[in-house]
């Protein structure tokens, strides 16, 4: 590997001059700069990124704060994986890279089962690595810790967690509007017994989708029934269990809005186990539009989130703060109802 010292010797300048050419070019004469750059190209020399970071106190690395402990299922969710790929692609197109941050086992052992037990440790890591900014993904109980990041002065973008600060903002989907559209679609098919399987109670997108479910019922002139609301966790098993509970009612629903596609697939399986046909006996709508939604039988009607848009918006907001120093307004991405085969008219209509 070619070093800065070798370039300096060939150019007849100091190592410090080579460093200034790549970090503070305005401080070097044009003739010297051109000579150093020419020799660097001929030798295929690239300045060490960590050394450049020390010089300018910032690197091309973006920290990803996301608790991927095996005891927390969030990292396995297909939507988050798709979102992460979109984020990585958007940052890469601007010359930045993602670095997954993790606290020590000691910090976790002091607070077993608690995510982001020591957010100050994360902030210390960002300082040591001279990271340019942070992307924050909630693993279930991280929202309070994110406030610490927002107050640190580091450029921060949270995904699906309302975050504010002089250099902090967030990106989320219009979850309430998407859920309301799904319910209105079911009502337009003649369904008046529409249930929902929600996400976790302390999850912001889940709460917004439940709000949208209630709004959609009201807009369709239907009365919300508390016994038609069961809580899930965004994963398939909770959708199966929740659907079984709903089907055990004396007057079971003829349609269900599940707050994730994973839970909707679980609902489909529960309906099949109960001897029901979808969509003839039960209509099902999901949320996310992950890959499996179009592969199950029947193909799932769902509310699609803009996964590439998530990554582009998050990267754009973060880079804006890095370059300009001020936090942009939060980004609310639109959703879209994708109608497939899992919805039909109310039985007997």
UniProtKB/TrEMBL annotation:
InterPro entries per UniProt: HTH_LacI (IPR000843), LacI/GalR-like_sensor (IPR046335), Lambda_DNA-bd_dom_sf (IPR010982), Peripla_BP_I (IPR028082)
PANTHER family xrefs: ALANINE RACEMASE (PTHR30146:SF155), LACI-RELATED TRANSCRIPTIONAL REPRESSOR (PTHR30146)
Stretches assigned to the HTH lacI-type domain: 2-56
Lineage: Bacteria, Bacillati, Actinomycetota, Actinomycetes, Pseudonocardiales
Keyword field: DNA-binding, Transcription, Transcription regulation
Name of this chain's protein: LacI family DNA-binding transcriptional regulator
MF GO annotations: DNA binding
Domain of life: Bacteria
Gene3D superfamilies: 3.40.50.2300, lambda repressor-like DNA-binding domains
Record PROSITE patterns: HTH_LACI_2 (PS50932)
């Amino acid at each position: 590997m070619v070093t800065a010292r070798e370039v300096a010797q060939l150019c007849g300048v100091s190592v410090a001059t080579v460093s200034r050419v790549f970090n503070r070019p305005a401080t070097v004469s044009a003739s010297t700069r051109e000579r150093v750059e020419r020799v660097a190209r001929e030798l295929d020399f690239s300045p060490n990124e960590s050394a450049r970071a020390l010089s300018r106190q910032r690197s091309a690395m973006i920290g990803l704060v996301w608790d991927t402990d095996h005891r927390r299922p969030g990292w396995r969710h297909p939507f988050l994986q798709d979102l992460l790929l979109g984020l990585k692609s958007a940052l890469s197109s601007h010359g930045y890279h993602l670095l997954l941050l993790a606290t020590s086992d000691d910090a976790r052992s002091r607070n077993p089962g608690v995510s982001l037990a020591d957010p100050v440790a994360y902030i210390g890591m960002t300082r040591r690595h001279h990271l340019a900014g942070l992307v924050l993904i909630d693993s279930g109980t991280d929202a309070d810790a994110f406030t610490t990041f927002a107050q640190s002065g580091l450029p921060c973008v949270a995904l699906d967690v309302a975050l504010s600060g002089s250099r902090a903002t967030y990106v989320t989907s219009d979850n309430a509007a998407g859920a309301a559209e799904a319910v209105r679609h079911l009502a337009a098919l003649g369904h008046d017994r529409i249930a929902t399987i929600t996400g976790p109670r302390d999850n912001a997108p889940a709460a917004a989708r439940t709000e949208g479910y209630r709004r959609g019922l009201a807009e369709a002139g239907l009365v919300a029934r508390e016994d038609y609301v069961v809580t899930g966790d965004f994963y398939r098993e909770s959708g199966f269990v929740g659907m079984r509970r709903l089907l055990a009612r004396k007057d079971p629903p003829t349609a269900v809005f599940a707050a994730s596609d994973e839970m909707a697939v679980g609902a489909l399986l529960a309906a099949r186990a109960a001897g029901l046909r979808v969509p003839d006996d039960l209509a099902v709508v999901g949320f996310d539009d992950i890959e499996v939604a179009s592969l199950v039988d029947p193909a799932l009607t769902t509310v699609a989130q803009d996964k590439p848009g998530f990554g582009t918006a998050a990267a754009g907001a973060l880079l804006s703060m890095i370059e300009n120093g001020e936090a942009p307004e939060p980004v609310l991405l639109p959703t879209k109802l994708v109608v497939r085969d899992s919805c039909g008219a109310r039985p007997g209509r």
